[in-house]
Design goal:
- Helices cover 10% and strands 36% of the residues.
- It has 2 helices and 9 strands, in the order βαββββαββββ.
- It has a 7-stranded mixed sheet. Strands 8-9 form a two-stranded antiparallel sheet.
- A hairpin with a 2-residue loop joins β8 and β9.
- It starts with 12 loop residues before the first strand and ends with a strand.
- 13% of the residues are buried.
Length: 127
């Protein structure tokens, strides 16, 4: 089993999932775009790979509005629903994305961690 990201590493995205995130696509904060692979030229999509806590590699695509729009509104599209179904994610669960710089020059590795919301007597705990 692959270890979780070090506790000292801050997530680039930490999100409590909403209905749209579960049923269609996951919206990302615009400011997080700078941490993901760059959009090239006039393209408004970029593919990248993420490793989960079990070591499985997932392929996602970030989609944005065309670059001439004021707000890009990034979302995870391709690969996201497969991830949601495989992990049995539900509204209220939490997903964190991390970026690690490896020893090799400019090599970036992404990780994703899922935290399931567990409610006990009205209090929410993360498992």
């Amino acid at each position: 089993m692959v270890s979780s990201p070090p506790s000292s590493m801050a997530p680039i995205v930490l999100k409590n999932l909403k209905k749209t995130d579960i049923e269609k696509r996951m919206t990302l904060p615009s400011k997080s775009l700078k941490c993901f692979p760059s959009l090239r030229d006039d393209k408004h999509t970029v593919d990248f790979q993420v490793r989960d806590e079990c070591g499985r590699v997932w392929k996602f695509q970030i989609y944005t509005r065309k670059k001439n729009k004021k707000y890009l509104k990034p979302v995870l599209t391709k690969g996201w629903r497969e991830f949601v179904c495989s992990k049995r994610l539900r509204v209220g669960d939490r997903v964190a994305f991390y970026m690690e710089k490896e020893d090799q020059a400019d090599s970036v590795k992404y990780r994703v961690k899922v935290e399931k919301a567990v409610r006990i007597f009205g209090a929410v705990f993360w498992a």
